[in-house]
Write a structure and sequence with these properties.
172 residues
């Protein structure tokens, strides 16, 4: 990167040239098969909690923020995971939705999907480590220990896309 180009400019240029990551809609349409298939989804034991943050959600100026926290204790992989008998690390993942009618409806769907163990699984990452990761349901997440948001807001179509994906998995 030369001194005349900011990293933001280079990042934007990647998107303009079609070299950025797939859009959420593209990943949903592709079934996200590049990462996890439905046959290997088995969610580790976890707790789900909901909190209302009294701050505005980007893209939703009239709504507070719903913060959903998924807490996974460390554990041992079962026969349904990539490496049975091997440990996996503790992880806390947060997702965010606007506190409005559609956001509350999606929270209900996410809770049902969570209880049916459809949201997370253990997969091997690019470094060869087995990690807890979202399964085939696209989540806007923030890892508490990393502080980074993946697939962030604003995204006007996210709640509709997420609802369609959940319904396609039988969550109503």
């Amino acid at each position: 990167m030369g001194s005349n180009h900011s990293s933001d400019t280079l990042h934007c240029n990647r998107y303009l040239k079609g070299q950025g990551p797939q859009s959420l809609a593209q990943r949903v349409n592709d079934g996200m098969s590049w990462r996890i298939t439905s046959s290997n989804v088995y969610q580790p034991e976890a707790k789900m909690s909901l909190e209302i943050l009294h701050k505005k959600m980007p893209g939703f100026p009239d709504a507070n923020t719903l913060k959903i926290t998924y807490s996974f204790a460390k554990g041992i992989q079962t026969e349904k995971h990539p490496h049975p008998g091997q440990p996996y690390a503790q992880k806390q993942v947060c997702t965010y939705l606007p506190e409005n009618h559609e956001g509350r409806t999606v929270v209900t769907l996410l809770e049902k999907a969570f209880n049916q163990q459809l949201l997370f699984t253990i997969a091997t990452n690019e470094s060869g480590e087995d990690v807890i990761t979202p399964a085939s349901v696209p989540l806007k997440i923030q890892h508490e220990e990393e502080g980074s948001i993946i697939d962030g807001y604003p995204d006007a179509n996210y709640l509709t896309t997420l609802s369609k994906v959940l319904r396609s998995k039988g969550i109503k």
